[in-house]
Write a structure and sequence with these properties.
binds zinc ion; two-stranded antiparallel sheet; 119 residues; Arc Repressor Mutant, subunit A; alpha+beta; three-stranded antiparallel β-sheet
Length: 119
């Protein structure tokens, strides 16, 4: 198993990720990126790197899910695009829906409000 494991120096990781060496060092020190200490240098295995990538991907997924407009269903990458929430369930509403459509409810509850108004 050891023979198949690739080791990277922090410099190589920095190159791979396109970030500064100091940033990689910080990831290792904070434990976000697992690393072995061999003498005075750190070594990261390809497995640990993959684990780190996996965690980052999950974080991105969570972020996107957190800012999906509950009325138009559009996904936003920044919570700054969210301008309000459904008055009933509290799901996020995007700036477009709030400012242009004067939205106050998510898709489901907007329908319920329409029905109430009609009857
Ligand atoms: Zn919207
Ligand atoms: Zn709602």
């Amino acid at each position: 198993m050891i023979e198949n494991t690739k080791f990277y120096s922090l410099e190589e990781i920095a190159n791979k990720l396109g970030i500064a060496y100091q940033s990689v060092y910080k990831l290792v020190r904070t434990g976000e990126l697992e690393a072995l200490r061999v003498g005075r240098v750190y070594r990261v295995t390809d497995h640990d790197l993959e684990t780190y990538f996996q965690r980052q991907r999950e974080l991105v997924k969570k972020e996107v899910a957190a800012v999906t407009c509950s009325l138009c269903g559009k996904s936003y990458f920044s919570s700054l695009s969210i301008a309000g929430q459904c008055k009933v369930c509290g799901l996020p509403l995007c700036r477009n829906c709030v400012e242009l459509k004067n939205a106050q409810y998510c898709e489901i509850h907007a329908e319920n409000q329409d029905q109430k108004r009609k009857s």
